[in-house]
Amino acid sequence: MTAPVRRGTQLLGGLVLYAASMALLVHAGLGNMPWDVLTQGISRHTGLSFGTITLLTSVVVLACWIPLRQRPGVGTVANVLVIGLLVDPFLAGLDRLPDPLPLAVRIVMAATGIVLNALATGLYVGARLGPGPRDGLMTGLVARTGRSVRLVRTSIEVLVVAAGWVLGGTVGLATVAYAVGVGPLVHVFLSRLTVPLPLAPASMAPVEHVALPAVATGAGADPEPAAC
Description:
This protein is mainly alpha-helical. It has nine helices and two strands. The chain has helices spanning about 5-30, 35-45, 50-65, 65-70, 75-95, 105-125, 135-145, 150-165, 175-195, and strands at about 215, 225.
């Protein structure tokens, strides 16, 4: 498989799995990922679907890139469209399951969502085709303010979780488990899934440079490359 084909395949596959992981965590009802807490809260007050709010939020966040002078990539645009369009069908499929689900099933569903999210992140970030809207916002603020990745990311996520919780989004043990566990898992997958870039013969430097976004790994760990 050539590098361009692999990168495109990883990007698309990763974004599809990312949407599936979001749906699993939402349906489990044990706590959402930080931005999804806000998405769910807005959805409950507007009557718009979870996927529609996800897409609209991504567009708003992308607009915030303009004063930060961030440049979107192919992967950035794909992130907005693929995840925003697929999360509703995944949620609809999960709604066919018996209700209520046993707690043990919900725990397994949430844990699967967290691991699947880390795998999805490793796939689409490893494709090196551009960060997601929310990671681009974070890296842009880091560049403009000079603050650490950990501080900026934590500040953003605390704000969106707080706002989402006030609006009725679900915050729970899975939210904490995601914050603590997804960073280390992403590192494992990224180390295996990042596509090496070709080297220019004259300089032996990569032909292109695509900065990988960063994520705080939780539990006070140092931030490392990853995405959300």
